[in-house]
Design a protein that fits this description.
The protein is mainly alpha-helical and 449 residues long. It has 18 helices and 4 strands.
Length: 449
Amino acid sequence: MPSHITDSIFLKDLYGTDEMRAIFNDESLLQRWLDVEAALAQAEAEIGVIPRWAAEEIARKAKAALIDTAWMKREIDHTLHPIVPLIRALKSICDGDAGEYIHWGATTQDIMDTALVLQIKDAIAIFEQRLSRLEATLAELAQRHRETIMPGRTHGQHALPITFGFKVAIWLDEFRRHAARMRECKPRVLVGQFGGAVGTLAGVGEHGFEIRRRMMAHLKLGVPTITWHVAHDRFAEFAGIIAMMAASCGKIAREVIALQKSEVMELEEPWAEGKVGSSTMPHKRNPMLCEAVVALARLCFDRARTALDGLIPEHERDWAVNHMEWAYLPELCVMADGALALTLRVLDGLHVYPERMRANLDAMQGLMMSEAVMFALGQAVGRQTAHDVVYACAMRAVETQRSFREVLAGDPLVRAHLSADDLDRLLDPTRYIGLAREMVDQVCRTDAD
C-alpha cells in the first residue's frame, strides 16, 4: 500500500489531484527519461554524430511500456544509479547495435534535469487551468457581493465597513499576479539541460551547441546559454511562485475559518448532508476543507525552503541537490495543486450570510463609524481636537455600554456642530465604504480586459 500521504488510498484527495499525481508518477518519470534520450539521439543523428538508423530505433523503442520496470528497480537498487539501468534496459530492446548510441555525450543529470523540466511544463499547464478557473470564480463572487456590506477588521477587531466584494477583489487581484508570474517564468524555467560530464560538452566537441539546440527543439524547451548543472535558480523561482499561490489559497481558507466561527458566522464553507464535523460532537460543522488548504499551504512553504537550499551546490556537480529536487518538486506541485483544487471547491459552494454581516456591523452600536464622525467634526474644530473628542465619546460608550450615538448627542462640542440628522447620516455604515465598490469594478474590469 502507498506510504506517502499524497498517494494514500484514504487521504490522497485532501493532498492533491489525480491529474497532478499522474504527471509525477513512476510511469510518467520513466517516459520523460526516455523522451529525453530519444530527443538527444535524434538531434545527434541530424548532424551526423550518430547513425540515423540508430536514432530512429532508439526513438521507436523509447516507450515506457516496453521497459522491464521490475528489472530496472533491481538494477537501480544494485547500482544506486537511476539512468545507467535505463540505458541498459533500452539497449536490450533496441535491434542491432542501435543501443550502443544511447546517451552519447550526455551525463545523467542532463537526462534527469530535462525530464523534470518536462514534468514541470505539464504541471504548469494544470496550474494555469486552475488559476483561470479561480480568477473567473473570484470575479463572479466579487461582482455578486459588490454591495454586500460587512465589518472590516484590523488587528482582529472591527475597524470600518467594507463590502465582501471588496475583500474578494483583493484575492482576485493577487491571483492575477500569480498567473502573470507563471506566464513570465516559463521562458526562464522551461529550459532543457545538456552539458555532458562537467558541463563543457567535451564529449561531442564542436557539435555541442547545435546538438543542444536541436535536442531542445524536439522537446519544445528553451535552449540554455550555458550548462546549469549547478545553477538551480530556475527550480527555486518556480518553487517560490507555486508556494506563493498556495499561500494565497491558505489566506482565503484562513479568512473563511475566521468568519465561520460560531459567534461570527458571516461565511461558511460548503456543507452537504453526511459531512461530519466531529466524531464526538454531533452539532459541529467544522471548516475541514479550509483547514486542509491551510495545512497544504504550510507544507508548500517547507518545500520552497528546500528549493533555496539547492542554490548552494558544490563545484560542478552536487547530487545532494538533485536528490532534494526529485523529492520536493513533485510534492510541491501535487500539494499546491491540491490547495488550488480545494480552494475552488470552497469558493464554488461558499455560503455567504449578508444578514450576519449586517448584524455584526450593528453589534458595535455605531462605534465603527468613529472616523466618519471625527472627520465631519474636524471640519469645524480641527482634526486633532475632533479625534480627542470622538475618542472620549467612544471610550465612554464602551465603558457605560451605551450606544455611540447617544453619547455623541450628549457631548456639548459635538452637539454644537453636528445635528441629529448629521449624526444619523454619519452613523450609517452604508454611506462610509469609500471607493470599495469602484475598486471591485476596477479589478473586475481589468480581468475582463
